[in-house]
Amino acid sequence: MAGRIRDEDITLVRERTSIADIISETVTLRSAGGGNLKGLCPFHDEKTPSFTVAPARNVYFCHGCGAGGDAIKFLMDAEHLSFVESVERLADRANIQLRYLEAGPAPVRPQQGQKQRLVAAHAAAAEFYAGQLGTAGARPAREFLAQRGFDRTAAQTYGCGFAPDAWDLLTKHLRQKGFTGQELVTAGLAREARSGSLIDRFRRRLLWPIKDLTGDVIGFGARKLFEDDDGPKYLNTPETPLYKKSHVLYGISQAKREIARQGRAVIVEGYTDVMACHLAGVPTAVATCGTAFGADHISVLRRLLMDTDAVAGEIIFTFDGDAAGQKAALRAFEDDQRFVGRTFIAISPDNMDPCELRLAKGDLAVRDLVARREPLVDFALRQVLNRYDLDTVDGRVEAMRRAAPLVAKLKDREKRPEYVRKLAGDLGMEIEPVQRAVLNAAAQQGTGAPRRGGDGGSTPPQRPTPVEPVVDSPQALVEREALKLALQVPVLAGPMFDALTPEAYLHPVHKVVRAAIDAAGGAAAGTTGAVWIERVRDACGDLAAVALVGELAVEPLRLDGDPDPRYVSITLARLEWGAVTSRIRDLKSKVQRVNPTANKDEYFALFGELLSLEQHARALREQAMGGL
Fold first, then answer.
1. Which of 162, 201, 227, 453 is the most exposed place for a label (fewest CB within 10 A)?
2. Lowest model confidence (mean pLDDT) among 133-142, 150-159, 513-522
3. Are 59 and 70 in contact (CB under 8 A)?
4. Where is this region: Disordered (predicted)?
């Protein structure tokens, strides 16, 4: 059985890992003030960013769905890794040699988890295929690339490779490296022949490695080269634990930074189109892999684009001008409503794709193609109108009926009146009947409410129930501030915070968090960062409290500048004053219920306690108001 990673090594991984760097690989983060960063949550669909990262403490929290934790937890949730796999992945990034308990005098790395094994197998396969591209048998593959304007440097940049004319050369190569036959089948690199033996999935084809957002190879796209190849023109990796075609975008690992920087993504149709765009100066191009562009692809891009009401990006589809391309463009318009940003279409002259355009007219023509984009709705409307004879009454009326739902679907309601006028002009009709048709279509679609940036579709995306903020009184606000100090600056809050017991907290969840801080050793024993926060989370034992710890770990303190001992003292004095005044109210009520004649001793005992508490409250109030 594999040994457990030493706790001190896990702590070191947490301390040396920049959570902002890890999360930035999949989510575009922007400054949110107070040293925090914000982006669209990768764990649920949202229009307004509620996913907060606190680099100073190496933790994150989503105020929308309650997801939170450190870099280890992020990888576990985002990439479906086990705890050990996440630690090992981060340790590799930070060049930390992990040690394992029960591993003997010469520490042995335990067997990698399945996902890491499959990633390693793909990396080895990509290296093998790239090496084969230089062999004599790969001449047709090299000629294919050259005919499309890609030299050896371009092939190396994109990791192009060749699957040799052999049944099991890759399989034997990978098995010699220690990968099992079952791992190769699970990875989609090999398949079982009729004889029961394993053979390579790809043979005699040009290959492109397909990478995920982090840059790991997770599959391959293979292009047919020989006429006697009975297979499809393009053959992709099948569905595997790594490769989900509905989520994968070719070129995303190379394009992600430019997509985030420019606020623009260009959607093309093939591997060579991505290469052509990147090399021509359009570095934001990506392509789907063997499937239509869909909702999961949109989710990936929206997080990179920071596609929100406040920061609307651009999504530019490039399609051939033929019938298939037009159909794809209209299908893309159906998905338009899932974006907040603006969607465009760019159609190349003479129905050329970006690769053909670059070859025929050069890099500038590819850049011009993107620059000449037009709103997708304009294109969609034009395609609908082109189907009808607008010189006849029947043609105009039927075209209006078909086009009105497109205008009604516009997510920016303020643009609808303009498009109503435009549609009426294109049809040669009065504006009133067109306006009625659009309003009727909007009513049927449920898109009539004048709200900017809404979903606009008949089936809005599901959103997890948000975490209710635990702020329902001035006292609760002070309690939150005190807990934030203990979580964010435990060294500073330390002894003063620990001196106040959980009884000073009135909100039940705050009490649990306060007790968890005690169980974790107290604030005085804490150190700023993810290690301390995770220790408190582990001690909570209550889901609401665990979520609250994540929330408070990233929530800014209620002051300008950095906290100091005076701010801690004032905050804790306010906290105690609130608890004491609550106790005073309870005592006053009790004193009023006690008969001073029949219960003399009880009455004077309560009265004496009340006087003492009121005196203490006055002192606390002076301290709490000290200079603020």
1. 227
2. 513-522
3. yes
4. 444-470
- Asked whether the beta carbons of 354 and 285 are under 8 A apart, the reply is yes
Q: How many Å is the maximal CA-CA distance in the chain?
A: 111
User: Is the pLDDT reported for residue 275 higher than 50?
Assistant: yes
Task: Provide DSSP, 542-609.
Answer: SHHHHHHHHHHHHSPPSSSS---HHHHHHHHHHHHHHHHHHHHHHHHHHHHHS-TTTTHHHHHHHHHH
The owner of tokens 């009454």 is 393
Type of residue at 36: N
Asked whether the beta carbons of 498 and 523 are under 8 A apart, the reply is yes
Which of 275-289, 386-400, 470-484 has the highest mean predicted lDDT (pLDDT)?
275-289
Whether the Cβ atoms of residue 110 and residue 3 lie closer than 8 Å to each other: yes
CA separation for the pair 384, 379 (Å, rounded)? 9
> What is the distance between the alpha carbons of residues 102 and 77, in angstroms, rounded to a whole number?
28
Query: H or E stretch including 68?
Result: strand 68-69
* C-alpha closest to that of 313 among 271, 276, 258: 258
**In DSSP terms, which residues pair with 219 in a beta bridge?**
210
What was the pLDDT predicted at 110?
A: 42
Nearest partner of 209 among 190, 193, 189, 239, judged by Cα: 189
To which H or E segment does residue 513 belong?
helix 508-519
Task: Provide the residue type at 355 as one letter.
Answer: C
As a whole number of angstroms, the distance between CA 249 and CA 213 comes to: 9
| pTM (two decimals) | 0.68
Q: What sign has the CA pseudo-torsion 435, 438, 443, 446?
A: negative
Q: Alpha helix (H) ranges present in 36-82? A: 71-79
Contacts of 281 (CB under 8 A, 6+ apart): 363, 366, 367
Beta carbons within 10 angstroms of residue 466's beta carbon: 14
